[in-house]
């Protein structure tokens, strides 16, 4: 079953990349609508904590079961700690047992980008914020239905915004 999910994820990603490559240049400006943010490294260092900088700007990973949000069960939105872009809803968070917040789908695929990560002697799919290019974590094809995906995200890359009480 895992092999089938891996093949399906690979095929889906191939189709998505192929579709992007075939679009006219003017159609590839989705990121303009989210207000791309670019800052110098000294600006990022001044705004982020040491751990946030390590994760978001240096593609680091916090230790499992140490992040503030890995076991958060409150209702709300998980946004990028670097720029505030909404990334995941609490309804899509699940307990993966990995020690990092895990989600089966982003709020909007325009907000979350992916690229191949060949570090550590393996091939993984890195997840980053499309607005500020901050490293969030990785996505794996072993999550629950309906997507079968597990977005394994560093707590330090996220800011939790509780749902407003009426």
UniProtKB/TrEMBL annotation:
Recorded catalytic activity of this chain's protein: L-methionyl-[protein] + [thioredoxin]-disulfide + H2O = L-methionyl-(R)-S-oxide-[protein] + [thioredoxin]-dithiol
Residues given in the record as Zn(2+) binding sites: 80, 83, 129, 132
Keywords: Metal-binding, Oxidoreductase, Signal, Zinc
All residue ranges annotated as the MsrB domain in the record: 41-163
Gene Ontology CC annotation, any one: cytoplasm
Record-listed E.C. numbers: 1.8.4.12
GO molecular function (one): zinc ion binding
Domain of life: Bacteria
InterPro entries: Met_Sox_Rdtase_MsrB (IPR028427), Met_Sox_Rdtase_MsrB_dom (IPR002579), Mss4-like_sf (IPR011057)
Record-annotated active site: 152
TM helices/strands, residue ranges: none
Cofactor: record remark: Binds 1 zinc ion per subunit. The zinc ion is important for the structural integrity of the protein.
Signal peptide as annotated in the record: 1-21
A Pfam family of this chain: SelR
GO process terms (BP): protein repair; response to oxidative stress
Cofactor requirements of the protein: Zn(2+)
Family assignment from sequence similarity: Belongs to the MsrB Met sulfoxide reductase family.
Protein name in UniProt: Peptide methionine sulfoxide reductase MsrB
Organism of derivation: Marinoscillum furvescens DSM 4134
Lineage of producing organism: Bacteria, Pseudomonadati, Bacteroidota, Cytophagia, Cytophagales
């Amino acid at each position: 079953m895992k092999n089938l999910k891996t093949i399906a994820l690979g095929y889906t990603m191939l189709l998505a990349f192929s579709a992007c490559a075939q679009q006219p240049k003017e159609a590839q400006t989705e990121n303009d609508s989210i207000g791309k943010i670019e800052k110098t490294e000294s600006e990022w260092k001044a705004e982020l904590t040491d751990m946030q900088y390590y994760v978001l700007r240096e593609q680091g990973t916090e230790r499992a079961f140490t992040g503030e949000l890995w076991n958060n069960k409150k209702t709300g939105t998980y946004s990028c700690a670097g720029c505030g872009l909404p990334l995941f809803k609490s309804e899509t968070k699940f307990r993966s047992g990995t020690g990092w917040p895990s989600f089966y789908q982003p709020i909007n695929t325009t907000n979350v980008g992916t690229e191949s990560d060949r570090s550590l002697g393996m091939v993984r799919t890195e997840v980053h914020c499309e607005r500020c290019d901050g490293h969030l974590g990785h996505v794996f094809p072993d999550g629950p239905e309906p997507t079968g995906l597990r977005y394994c995200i560093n707590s330090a890359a996220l800011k939790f915004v509780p749902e407003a009480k009426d």
